[in-house]
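Allow me, if you will, to draw on your knowledge of protein folds for a short while. A protein sequence and the structure tokens that stand for its backbone fold form the material at issue. I would ask you to consider whether the tokens describe a fold that such a sequence might reasonably adopt. Thank you for your consideration; the sequence and its tokens are set out here:
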Amino acid sequence: MNFNLTKIVEGKSTKKFIILILVTSLMGCASSKKIDYFQKKEGVEINENFTNYEPTIQFGDIININVSSAEPEAALPYNLYESQGNGVARPLPYLVNASGEINFPSLGEIKVAGLTIQQVTAELNKKLRPYLNNPIINIRFVNFKISVLGEVRSPGTYTITNERITIIEAIALAGDLTIYGERKSVTLIREQNGKRTLTTIDLTDRALFNSPNYFLAQNDVIYVESNKTRVNSSSVGPNSYIIVSIVSVLISIAAIIIR
């Protein structure tokens, strides 16, 4: 049986078929549902009102407390300083001990664990009013930091100066997820009140905005798992360059045939 291969190959239908086969074999089908963040879902309503979120002080936290008043000299005994010599004094931070307390000058042990900065400020203000005229208390975290690990562009630990950060902002600090990051399975590791919790977060679900984990706490760790593409690519051996060469040859042959 004789046939003209050139005429068959030159047919438009055959050209399209060859191109389709090559493209399908070399490229996987991807869905935006696996990649896009905050997708709409039926029955899920997003709370549009921002909450005045404040992190609570935990055991092991380090905080700065500065006390001032209309009479600066009267406030000096209520501040913690370390002498640096030459009359220079450096303010010292407070470490929250295992009992959740700090040892405050003149007032002794004060329970702070489980309270927000606003609550501790109000408590100190009440305790200092008998001794100071219009006391002003300023409290800040020293160790408010979060860590982002796994499939992100810039993994690491980040210090947060404003003491308020969302999981979205944390991922942005780390340069966003790589193409190999599993967006439906991000793990939030949190240590609070002596307990460690691991929570799975789906970044593709818009309901994240209603989650109690939307705002992060100090020392939170975010871990982004690798998706199947990364896992499968890790199993490719040292001969992977041979596969690439074969694919290149096939593409070159196809280009010649379909001319």
